[in-house]
């Protein structure tokens, strides 16, 4: 199965809403970080990619017809070359609103992770997947420097826009709804409202729990279960 849609937008540009929308339009399933962190095979794939192994993209995306969000959006060039018939969607929002959202959610989760997560093999892999595929590869370890990150964000969007002809690329804000998305993909507009997923409150709960875990010891088995559950939400 080849990818038919490639999401090039950063996490926190409405990617979970896009996942729900694309699956509603028949692209089953849509790859997203939530699909990675809850799946052992996906964790192993992306751990090897983070280490520099040449990806077998067909194996990584077996069973998926679309992709959005990190970590796949960090490899949009490679995926667009490997799947030349796939259409590309750049989800976007204003930089300042995106940076605030990312800082308070996905980045906050990453820095709140207890240091001892790396003592558990699965936890170490998850830490590496997020750290190396996202914060290092995309933001060069400088995400906290807002102006540097602004340059990365703006350059990323310019690069994506310059890489594809109009018939292959849609620049899209989920608040635009079904119309532009369905026209671009050649799909009928569903009768229901476009899905808008807001999970900020859930992030804040997980961040608070992770901070408590930094000082409270857990048995290894309990930790694996809890960390996997928390990580499942890390890139909603």
From TrEMBL:
Stretch forming the signal peptide: none
Superkingdom of origin: Bacteria
Keyword Membrane: yes
Keywords attached to this entry: Membrane, Transmembrane, Transmembrane helix
Keyword Transmembrane attached: yes
Transmembrane residue ranges: 215-235
Cross-referenced Gene3D superfamilies: P-loop containing nucleotide triphosphate hydrolases
Protein's name according to its UniProt entry: Sulfotransferase family protein
């Amino acid at each position: 199965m080849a990818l038919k849609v490639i999401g090039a937008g950063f996490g926190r540009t409405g990617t979970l809403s896009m996942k729900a929308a694309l699956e509603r339009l028949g692209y089953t399933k849509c790859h997203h970080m939530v699909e990675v962190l809850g799946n052992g095979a996906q964790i192993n794939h992306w751990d090897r990619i983070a280490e520099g192994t040449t990806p077998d993209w067909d194996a990584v995306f077996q069973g998926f017809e679309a992709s959005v969000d990190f970590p796949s959006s960090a490899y949009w060039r490679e995926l667009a070359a490997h799947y030349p018939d796939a259409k590309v969607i750049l989800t976007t929002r204003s930089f300042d609103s995106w940076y605030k959202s990312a800082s308070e959610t996905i980045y906050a989760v990453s820095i709140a992770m207890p240091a001892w997560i790396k003592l558990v093999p699965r936890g170490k892999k998850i830490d590496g997947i997020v750290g190396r595929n996202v914060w290092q590869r995309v933001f060069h370890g400088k995400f906290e420097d807002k102006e540097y990150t602004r340059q990365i964000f703006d350059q990323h969007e310019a690069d994506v826009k310059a890489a594809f002809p109009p018939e292959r690329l849609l620049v899209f804000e989920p608040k635009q709804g079904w119309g532009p998305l369905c026209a671009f993909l050649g799909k009928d507009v569903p009768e229901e409202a476009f899905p808008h997923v807001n999970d900020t409150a859930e992030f804040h709960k997980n961040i608070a729990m992770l901070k408590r875990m930094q000082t409270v010891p857990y048995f290894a088995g309990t930790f694996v279960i809890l960390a996997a559950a928390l990580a499942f939400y890390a890139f909603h």
